[in-house]
Design goal:
Number of strands: 12
Distance between the termini: 42 Å
Helix content: 25-40%
Bound molecules: zinc ion
Shape: elongated
């Protein structure tokens, strides 16, 4: 009888071995769909009913295929794909998976050993220690200290909020009871706090909190996601960020220059601001649901009397994903 502890110990090594053998940069977001194609498995997205995904082995290890439901969000689909890849990598037989990401949902029901192994493989494959460290560095934190931190970490790694929270104890980054408290908070609560009182058209979308630390970063988002930009500004200086150059694929839904944002959530997210000092300028943008591909998000900061002579520029490179159906489009 395999225990989860054993499954995780074995999966940690199996996933690291897979990264090595397949030449994967374990400190970057793991592009599991591309990797599946590289190991010559066919990958398809279909509106499967009541099934997360399935793996069909080929006659001689190659030539098999993976099917992932198109009914789940991207993070869940990535986990399912990694679970099915686990069945392939660990030489399991074919598998039809009604539910994957059970780790994420803390279901302690006993699974078949092969299913436990594939679940644990998916967690370590998508969230190797190198990637977790690199993502924490991007976020400029040593470890997650709040539900917002866990959520931000999950977005950087392309994993679900719950799966990320439950992986933290495996990585010795949080005690189990703390991780469970975070995991059981509905992501909607975190998204609402990050939106500072500005309602979202759909709480299925993600909220990316972007600040100076993210300048120049490449970020993979989903069409319709929300971006909350927090940039330093001293209004009394007359040098202001301009939203004029924002791409047409974005819509400003709130801007502290003209709108009032919820002060309580601002305070809890940004801390107390010294009076008379820098007041962060906060701009909330929603991405057009019809957008896809590369979108450059750029803002310039210029004196109000000389708008054509910018003194600072902020840029983030977005890569916008549409929902997946059929065959994934190669990047
Ligand atoms: Zn399975």
């Amino acid at each position: 009888m395999t225990s989860w502890r054993e499954a995780h110990q074995q999966a940690m090594f199996a996933a690291a071995d897979a990264h090595d053998q397949l030449g994967i940069d374990a400190d970057h977001r793991i592009d599991v769909f591309r990797i599946i194609e590289e190991v010559e498995l066919a990958l398809m997205f279909r509106p499967l009913r009541g099934v997360s995904g399935l793996y069909v082995p080929g006659p001689q290890r190659v030539g098999g295929g993976i099917l992932v439901t198109s009914n789940h969000g991207l993070a869940r689909q990535r986990f399912t794909a990694a679970h099915e890849l686990g069945h392939f990598w660990l030489n399991h037989g074919g598998s039809i998976d009604v539910a994957t990401e059970v780790l994420g949902r803390d279901e302690l029901n006993r699974l078949e050993p092969a299913e436990m192994a594939a679940e644990a493989f998916a967690a370590w494959f998508l969230m190797p220690p190198e990637l977790v460290d690199a993502s924490l560095q991007q976020l400029q934190i040593a470890k997650p200290n709040s539900a917002e931190d866990v959520y931000a970490l999950s977005l950087r790694m392309g994993t679900s909020y719950q799966a990320t929270a439950y992986h933290l104890p495996n990585l010795k980054l949080a005690p189990y009871d703390v991780a469970r408290d975070w995991a059981t908070q509905p992501p909607k609560t975190v998204k609402t706090a990050l939106s500072m009182g500005t309602p979202m058209p759909s709480y299925q979308q993600d909220v990316w909190s972007l600040s100076a630390r993210d300048a120049g970063a490449d970020i993979e988002v989903r069409a319709g996601d929300r971006l909350v930009l927090t940039l330093p500004e001293t209004p009394s200086s007359g040098v202001m960020w301009s939203t004029n150059e924002l791409p047409g694929a974005t819509r400003v839904v709130a801007d502290t220059m003209r709108d009032h944002l919820d002060e309580q959530s601002q305070k809890s997210l940004l801390g107390d601001q010294p009076p008379g000092g820098d007041v962060p300028r906060i701009v909330i943008l929603d991405l057009d649901p019809g957008t896809s591909g590369a979108v450059e998000l750029a803002l310039t900061k210029a004196p109000v009397w000389a708008p054509d002579a910018p003194v600072d520029r902020y840029r983030v490179n977005l890569y916008v994903q549409q929902p997946l159906l059929g065959r994934p489009i190669p990047a």
